[in-house]
Amino acid sequence: MNAVLDAIHQRYSCRHFQPTPIPAETLAAIAEAGLHAPSATDRQPWRIICVTDPEAIADIEQAGFATLKEMDPAGYDRIVGRGGRLLYGSPALILLLQQEVGGLVKPDLDTGILTAHIALAAQGLGVNSCIAALTAYAFEGPGSDERKQRLGFPEGFHFVVSVLLGYESGEPKAPHAPDPSKIITVA
Questions:
Q1: Residue 13: helix, strand or coil by DSSP?
Q2: Which of 3, 31, 140, 148 would give a disulfide with 153, using CB separation of 3.0 to 4.6 Å?
């Protein structure tokens, strides 16, 4: 196989990170890989925010957890039952923001492609990842406007998803088993 296919086949959602920091040049390479993602009419309706400051990460986790508890008690209970960590101890995360654009083409697909580029680049560089939508709770509750401002959210952009990054703290997990029956071929 080749390196890209290897990264695709080996990647899994890591939920137990070591506190070991990711080297700055590695994090920059992962974020830059996202910039190579294609987008409809090349609008690139996104911004990428890399967060490694432990205080900012702790604030995002605490705020997200508090808002999750209020807005989705069942989801909160599920997370508590799985160890009570929203960000799984990741020492770095990439926040992906999106700008709405006019017309029929919606930017959600573009941001999804961006997310895949970042997660696969991380895997290719030996960094584990977890694509995490629950981070959104940190940007909806009390203090969210101030949090967005501290993190540098540009005007007109909103949070979509985060990619948690770090190194597995336990045994690497097996990737999910693909189901070939989900492929339909018309020849």
A1: strand
A2: 148
Q: Annotate 98-126 with b (16+ C-beta within 10 A) or e (fewer).
A: bbeeeeeeebeebbebbbbbbbbbbbbbe
pTM of the model as a whole: 0.92
Please report, for the chain, how many H helices and E strands are present, in that order.
Answer: 6, 4
Q: How much is the pLDDT for 107?
A: 76
Nearest-angstrom CA–CA distance, 15 and 172: 10
Torsion angles phi and psi, residue 60, rounded to 5: -60, -45
Flag whether pLDDT at 160 surpasses 90: yes
* CA dihedral sign of residues 63, 67, 70, 74: negative
CA distance 172 to 12: 8
